[in-house]
Input
Amino acid sequence: MDNQAKIKVMIVDDSLFMRGAIKKILESDKHFEVVGQASDGAMAVQRVAKLNPDVITMDFNMPIMNGVEAVRRIMAQHPTPIVMLSAHTTEGARETIEALEHGAVDFITKPSGEVSSDISRVGPELFMRLLNACKAKVKKESHPKADKQKRLQQLTAPKQKVLGRRVLLVGVSTGGPAALAGFLPSLPRVTDLGIVIVQHMPPTFTAALAKRLDSLCRIHVAEARDGDMIREGTALIAPGGFHLEFGNEGTVKLTRSSPINGCRPSVDVTMKSASKIFNRNLIGLIMTGMGKDGAEGMEAIKKAGGRTIVQDRESCVIFGMPKACIDKGIVDEIVSLDSLADALK
Output
């Protein structure tokens, strides 16, 4: 592969050591060429239009302008796929969710803190994330803001009833936080839907995602716990590191069995389990994501008499998971992100 065919990367990190280490990792692979670096977010915003990289690696904690604000400005001015380098901490998870909501495509956790002398350990994963990010569809988008009145309505609402009617089971991966933030706030506070979400994310990050979505939505959003019941007007997010299944009474069971499709939680595991319990009361929804996790689960929902919906290509960051379902011939409806809430009425 010649230089012109290489993927052009810009590295953004306030640590000279980290910029050098990441550059060394990337240039060890024939697919990548480092075309520029920036030591803070403001410099990154200035340089991205000039350098026109194919993809950006972005740190969080930087002087002058942090990573989240840099993502927001880049996506508003010169949309470019961005992969965040995150600390595997509660604060790092919160920052990651915010960056993903503003348009960053994906993230990778540093193995040992902000300045990781062992960053080479994540080299193969970094290659994969960057290659996948280059396939992503990025565009200027507005994102919902927390509505204090909606939160007041939620806090003063009567306690949700245990589910009596419909269960919506959502599978989502790359591009998920922004897609969920574009969909869930559109759902009304009073709804007969009980919702379970499987988002491909590691531990800590799913809790941060639940907290962020809860601040945006009229429904209640929480990370699922073992023994939880599905309730109307509540969305439960499968915790990272666990598969989410269901007992005979429809209670949540969290397990640590082997990853499926390289994922734990896996959409297939949850949907197959749900199809045995909820049958025709189940709605399967596959949203943006890489790979095919969820295709077999949607097939199980279809066979059980449930309804199957996928997000359309145009509104997906990555169309892999929805396309895998379409290719199986098991999809009832293909719906844009903006129309999902209406499709569930």
In short: The chain has two domains: 3-133, 148-343. The longest helix spans residues 16-27.
